[in-house]
Write a sequence for this structure.
């Protein structure tokens, strides 16, 4: 007896608010259309095993999880190699659609799997739902990835209280925000909180990213605020800067790291905010400046909160969009929901290179919008040089335009 046509859903990478909304919406739409829904645990880790770890999702379960944070399906970052591929699970369960929820790696893996299955006489459709709090998938017209707005909202809630703590105690905080290679999250949080200094990797497009430049930017803001009569503040730095450091820069910074089998420092074992703050305190002592600062890491707290209304609606649109694209016969694409609630396919081949790798969407720091934003940061400018000589002999070295070698 031929099994009911089946849709399998998997989530990979890290969690983001709205995953359960997508799972629930896809499940409801396809169950109503007579399909069976399987939720695969641990992403790609078990899909090619003899006994894949999956659950059957019914309408009641979908109805109960749609507004919850986290992911009902277990996740992993496993990236399957071609030698792992086989058709067994897809044939046995009569799978006609693979729905993947994740970032660029998850999407490219789905693309490779569907191509392999077609070559082995089991053609399926695969549709990807773009998930990441980093907002770094290249969706058209600056459309956000789902989870970004909720993560930003929670980050703002946390970072406003951090700034209030700084104000209450006349101190400074150095915050590190998640973001991989892109600075969207740090920039969004920092702007909403009116942070005097926001540092993202994209700002260094004319110079190399170094600890010295980052520290000068923070100290510039500290002194500027002091000149304004404000003895407190906060700087937020995107962890993405670590993707641009030379390894020698990291190894020679004075922080003690553990190292992997290849001799590379294991950055995941240390707080990025701690690194910045220790180096900042050392430099402040060298300059004989008496600013107090504390480190705070913002990232994991943002990933599993319940989605706000924006992402609840957006993820519902995306889930419904999967069914629309499936019915149109679309495959090897990302589902896109426009500002006008149109459903469009974004084909993997149009946004990936010859190796199937998707280039991340970075903050456009040369846009008028960002340059206007940059003018709201608080740092030493030429008008402050005379007053700033009280704090250091070379105030021009702490001017943002000189640090970054850009016109502001």
């Amino acid at each position: 007896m031929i099994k009911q046509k089946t849709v399998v859903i998997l989530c990979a990478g890290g969690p983001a608010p709205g995953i359960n909304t997508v799972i629930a919406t896809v499940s409801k739409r396809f169950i109503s259309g007579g399909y069976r829904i399987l939720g695969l645990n641990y992403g790609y880790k078990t899909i090619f095993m003899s006994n894949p770890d999956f659950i059957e999702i019914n309408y009641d379960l979908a109805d109960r999880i749609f507004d919850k944070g986290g992911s009902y399906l277990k996740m992993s970052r496993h990236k399957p190699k071609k030698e792992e591929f086989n058709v067994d699970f897809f044939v046995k369960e009569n799978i006609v659609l693979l729905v993947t929820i994740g970032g660029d790696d998850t999407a490219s893996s789905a693309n490779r799997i569907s191509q392999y299955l077609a070559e082995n006489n089991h053609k399926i459709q695969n549709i990807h739902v773009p998930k990441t709090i980093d907002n770094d998938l290249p969706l058209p017209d600056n459309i956000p990835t789902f989870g970004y707005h909720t993560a930003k909202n929670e980050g703002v809630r946390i970072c406003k209280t951090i700034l209030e703590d700084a104000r209450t105690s006349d101190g400074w905080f150095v915050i590190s925000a998640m973001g991989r290679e892109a600075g969207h999250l740090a920039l969004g949080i920092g702007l909403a909180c009116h942070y005097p200094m926001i540092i993202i990797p994209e700002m260094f497009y004319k110079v190399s990213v170094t600890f010295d430049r980052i520290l000068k930017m923070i100290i510039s803001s500290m002194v500027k605020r002091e000149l304004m009569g404000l003895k407190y503040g906060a700087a937020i730095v995107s962890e993405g800067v670590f993707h641009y450091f030379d390894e020698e820069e990291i190894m020679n910074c004075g922080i003690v790291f553990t190292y992997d089998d290849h001799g590379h420092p294991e950055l995941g074992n240390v707080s990025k905010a701690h690194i910045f703050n220790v180096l900042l305190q050392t430099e402040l002592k060298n300059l004989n400046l008496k600013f107090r600062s504390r480190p705070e890491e913002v990232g994991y707290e943002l990933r599993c909160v319940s989605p706000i209304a924006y992402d609840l609606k957006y993820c519902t649109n995306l889930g419904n969009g999967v069914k629309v694209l499936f019915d149109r016969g679309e495959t090897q694409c990302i589902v896109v929901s426009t500002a006008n609630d149109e459903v469009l396919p974004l084909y993997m081949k149009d946004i990936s290179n010859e190796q199937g790798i998707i280039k991340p969407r970075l903050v456009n720091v040369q846009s008028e919008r960002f340059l206007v934003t940059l003018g709201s940061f608080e740092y030493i400018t030429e008008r402050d040089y005379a007053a700033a000589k009280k704090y250091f002999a070379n105030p021009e070295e702490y001017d943002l335009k000189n640090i970054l070698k850009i016109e502001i």
The radius of gyration is 24 Å. The first strand starts at residue 6 and ends at 11. Residues 149-303+378-404 form a domain with the Rossmann fold fold (CATH 3.40.50.460).
